[in-house]
Structures are given as structure tokens and as C-alpha cells.
Amino acid sequence: MGRRFAFERGTRRLIAAISVATSVLLWEEAVMQRIAFLLRLKEGTGPAYDRDHAAVWPEMLDLLKRSGISEYSIFRRDELLFLTMHIEGDFDAAWDKIDRDPVNQRWQKAMGAYFVSDHGARDGERFPMMKEVFYLP
Asked: Which of 4, 12, 53, 126 is catalytic?
């Protein structure tokens, strides 16, 4: 039996399948999505929310990275939050994984007091998703 190695660079992945008899190199495009959505804070909770996000738990950061999330930013204007991230693979599958993790469950319990109950998500949406209409790489 052969071994399989993956070498990553950017959003391209070189996969080398190596066996005693043959050697095969394949290029596989990794699916990377840019995601953006909105959330709303309860009035007056912005400064406390900022403080907590200046010190996100290392285990929470690790969970996000292991789930395929990178370049995650949160912008705030008063009570409006604008969140952006890159995610490898399917957004809902990654977020399902995050939702099931005990670290995230503790984080959500700690952060839950900051958010309004209705973020304005449409039917079938986890969050009020933004549609990308322009991108300059």
C-alpha cells in the first residue's frame, strides 16, 4: 500500500499518492469561500463585547482554525456587527462542527448575553448572510 501526502500552498493542494510500483501527482483545487454576515448587539453592550473579543480563548481560536476558518474579522459600528471570514469547504458543515463542540458551547453561553434574539436571518439561514457583489483580489 502507498502513502498519501498533502502539501498546501494558498488555495491549491498538491496531493502525492506514492506506492512501490507507481507514483501519481494530482492537483486538487481547495474550495475557499469568502463569507460575510451581520449580527446585532443589545444596546450598550459594545464595549464589553470588544473587551471579550480582545481576548478570545486560545481553544476557541484553535476550533475555528481546525474547522477551516481563516481571515476572520469582526467590525462593529454601535450595535451592528459585520463579520467576514474565509472558509475552506462548506460553510454549514463547518458551522455544524463548531456548534457541536463543547468549547464553542461554552463560548456561546459566555457571549449570548450580548446579542439581540432576532438578527434578521431569513428562512433557512443560520445568520443574516451578505451577498458578495464585488471583489478586488
From this structure: 53
